[in-house]
Amino acid sequence: MTSWALGIDLGGTAVKIAVIDREEGLLAHERHPTESQEGPEGVVSQIAGLAQSFHARFAPRLGAERFAGLGLGAPGAVDREKGMLSYPPNLPGWKRFPLEERLLETLDARYGLRCPLEIDNDANAAAYGEAVFGAGKGYRDFMLVTLGTGVGGGIILDRRLYRGPNGTAGEIGYLTVDYAGESVHAGIRGTVESLIGKKGIVSMGKEIYRRYPRTLWNEDMHGEDLQDLSPRTLEKAAHGGDAVALEVWERIGSVLGVGLAGVVALMDIRTFIIGGGISGAGDLVFAPAFRQLKHSTLPSMHEGMAVVPAALGNEAGVYGAAALCFSSLP
């Protein structure tokens, strides 16, 4: 009989929770709106309640003695040694918060539930999930890059999660690729996230469309003054043969490729697994990213180079959070 764990992925808009069996994978999952308006203590209360509910439902069937613990992936910088979460984006008012301590206290005081608790950055958790259950199973070394509202990353080296000495390794979204550019994110100019996070893509798309006559604008999809333009409308337009949308995706992929090239040059990582909602555009972003990646690296760096789609979709975070409770990567 194998062990099982609960995985939680904390986001600004949703809290996802899942039951993960080490051998069988995902057995059940739910998604709930994040009660962010209640502040840190309110969100901790919400997480504790969900964990208790799931544990009570599944422990009788799966075996309380086989329960490996609760894993939690959270946005922002996570100090695993202190259990501290710092300045998570999309969670206003948190700043520095002792997440591990508060969650353990709440689980014990309210529910009498005492269990191992593993906390990590959400992108690290997603990378771990892909390593154990997804597209990273066949690689010793890779980087997961998540493309969505923001751009995050997690690094697996020699089948181990590499966090760096301060726990912030893999933050490819903050890598500067255009230091003189106009885009700014978190006070830093020309970062990958400022350019191809969701807001950056919308801004880029509008800028490129406005270089062309309005007769070339796809107003049925993007709106009369591009007010409805989004990564999704750009994807639909490009698949319909819209030349301007195709140019936007070429630019998005190229920015990603330049960022990946920096990782190759610095760390000699050559496999990149790309996930997140925007990765659903497929070859619209993958093909230009790979072309730019090769163009921005030396030929001696090209052997074994690969850019592949993630396998776990939006559930990578809960898979990985739960997997943190298991002893090691296979």
Tell me about this structure.
It is a single chain. By secondary structure, the protein is of the alpha/beta class. It folds into 2 domains: 4-128, Nucleotidyltransferase, domain 5 (2-Layer Sandwich); 137-310, Nucleotidyltransferase, domain 5. The chain is built from 10 helices and 15 strands. The protein has a 5-stranded mixed sheet with strand order 3-2-1-4-8, sandwiched between helices. Strands 11-10-9-14-15 form a 5-stranded mixed sheet, with helices on both faces. The protein is globular, with a radius of gyration of 21 Å.
List the helices and strands and how they pair.
Elements: E1 4-10, E2 14-21, E3 25-33, H1 39-62, E4 67-74, E5 77-79, E6 84-86, E7 96-97, H2 99-111, E8 117-121, H3 122-133, E9 142-147, E10 151-157, E11 160-162, E12 184-185, E13 188-189, H4 192-196, H5 198-209, H6 219-222, H7 231-239, H8 243-267, E14 271-275, H9 283-295, E15 306-309, H10 316-323
Parallel strand pairs: 1-4, 4-8, 9-14, 14-15
Antiparallel strand pairs: 1-2, 2-3, 5-6, 6-7, 9-10, 10-11, 12-13
Helix pairs in contact: 1-2, 3-10, 5-8, 7-8, 8-9
CATH arch. level architecture of the largest domain: 2-Layer Sandwich
Let me know the largest β-sheet.
5 strands, mixed
- CATH level 1 name of the largest domain: Alpha Beta
The helix tally amounts to 10
**Spans of at least 5 consecutive residues with low confidence:** none
**Order of SSEs:** EEEHEEEEHEHEEEEEHHHHHEHEH
Task: Compute the separation of the termini in Å.
Answer: 17 Å
The pLDDT mean sits at 94
Based on CA inertia axes, which overall geometry fits? Answer: globular
Strand content: 15-25%
* Helix vs. strand class: alpha/beta
